[in-house]
Design a protein that fits this description.
442 residues, seven-stranded mixed β-sheet, binds pyridoxal-5'-phosphate
């Protein structure tokens, strides 16, 4: 494998125009690649695990739309389902059979989901779930974890992961002070901090990504289904017990982990059932769909069954529902075994390639997810993640792009290997990584 200098003339031209028309030239911040010191690549097409850009370069893609494309780009079954749905009409604003089917498919898989409401984005699902939690408990405050990301909901932007972590934005301007003050933030995996916060504040909900992946993947202590987190008593079971004891709901944001780390998500792998679950990404199969779900008596508070208002013109949209159902149908036992194997092989290969080059890394992984932290030592919290060497990460990421491997261009994100990644592509990735680690070695 050798480093070819790829042409990026057309991407550069498009980006110059885009910067005049879109803030930062993009419609979502992490796409901009600022964190790794380069301009973004404009994509024309994807097939399986391969992306093609406007200059004709091809890449092995580990972003996969940041999670939705668990079956890869343009999977024939998904394309067929969406095409057939489009031909029957794109939206009705009236119930369809597919909405009943997708709700049943979610309830069948996710332990905490008895009743489901479909929405259009993970942000909307998280916002709606916390409204319901506040209504059900009669409390206003929320407990969230530093480095956790739950979409760009006003009250949840403080100390959030994902693009805010990458851009170093601790709290967004434009959020009312009262909204920010209603959010209590504690360090991930810190039992004492959780207990102290709950003693001081009556909270409506403990809101957590059970496998946080927006500060890079930082598994909960004592995880059974993910590696790279701290040892010790299981942190998720502790959260379950603390929520129950303090009259708070436990809300798991499984927008990334749902249907990815296992059929029933992280809650099933870890054997901890939340009161409410937030879902997104995979459930839309690459189209805009998300959901919140929970026990029947809680979900029956949502209008029109109950008085907690939430609505959406395109919610349960026929194309998104068709893509989501087609994607779920591909996710059988063999699929999860493959997602587990692929993540493990990449994690082990990357760890040993880094060691050979003398680069200190901490690699965490779960089925279909992994993060390489450029950090010497354990990563158990957002503070640990932030101690990573982001300059070296950026150089590594650019070196991988030069070798045709497209990684999330941010240290505080996870790689998303899919069912479409072939053994040959994995080998090529590890060969590129060996060279890239050598290039960035101290
Ligand atoms: C992506 C993400 C969201 C937000 O979903 P959008 O569809 O981007 O609004 C919420 N929570 C988690 C855990 C996510 O990873």
């Amino acid at each position: 494998m050798s480093c070819v200098t790829l042409s990026d003339r057309r991407s550069a031209e498009l980006f110059a125009r885009a910067e005049r028309l879109l803030p930062g030239g993009v419609n979502s911040p992490v796409r901009a690649m600022r964190a790794i010191g380069r301009d973004p690549i404009f994509v024309t097409a994807g097939a399986g695990a391969e992306l093609t850009d406007v200059d004709g370069n091809a890449y092995v893609d580990y972003v996969c739309s940041w999670g939705p494309l668990i079956a890869g780009h343009a999977h024939p079954r998904v394309v067929e389902a969406v095409t057939a749905a489009a031909a029957r009409g794109t939206s009705f604003g009236a119930p369809t059979a597919a909405e009943v089917e997708i709700a049943a498919a979610i309830a069948d898989r996710v332990p905490g989901a008895e009743m489901v409401r479909m929405v259009n984005s993970g942000t909307e699902a998280a916002m709606s779930a916390i409204r319901l939690a506040r209504a059900a408990t009669g409390r206003e405050k929320l407990l969230k974890f530093a480095g956790g990301y739950h979409g760009h909901v006003d009250g949840l932007l403080a100390d959030a992961g994902s693009g805010l972590a990458t851009a170093g934005i601790p709290a967004s301007p434009g959020v009312p002070a009262a909204q920010a003050a209603a959010t209590v933030i504690v360090p991930w995996n810190d039992r004492d901090a959780v207990a102290a916060a709950l003693a001081e504040h009556e909270v409506a909900a403990i809101l957590a990504e059970p496998y946080p992946a927006n500060m890079g993947l930082v598994p909960p202590a004592g995880a059974r289904g993910a590696t790279g987190g701290p040892d010790g008593e299981p942190f998720l079971a502790f959260l379950r017990e603390q929520a129950g004891r303090n009259g708070a709901l436990l809300v798991f944001d499984e927008v990334i982990s749902g249907f990815r780390v296992g059929r029933g998500g992280a809650q099933e792998r870890e054997g901890v059932t939340p009161d409410l679950t937030v879902l997104g990404k995979v459930i839309g199969g690459g189209l805009p769909a998300a959901a919140y779900a929970g026990r029947t008596e809680l979900m029956e508070r949502v209008a029109p069954a109950g008085d907690v208002y939430q609505a959406g013109t395109l919610s349960g949209n026929p194309l998104a529902t068709a893509a989501g159902l087609a994607t779920l149908e591909l996710l059988d036992g063999d699929a999860y075994a493959r997602l587990e194997l692929v993540a493990r092989q990449l994690a082990e290969g990357l760890r040993s390639a880094a060691a050979d080059a003398g680069v200190a890394v901490h690699v965490s992984h779960a089925p279909g997810l992994l993060t390489v932290f450029f950090h010497d030592g354990p990563v158990a919290s957002y503070a640990d993640a932030r101690a990573a060497d982001t300059d070296r990460f950026g150089a590594f990421c650019r070196a991988m792009l030069d070798r045709g491997v497209y990684l999330p261009a941010a240290q505080f994100e996870a790689w998303f290997p899919s069912l479409a990644h072939t053994d040959e592509q994995l080998d090529r990735t590890l060969a590129a990584a060996a060279e890239a680690f050598a290039e960035v070695a101290p």
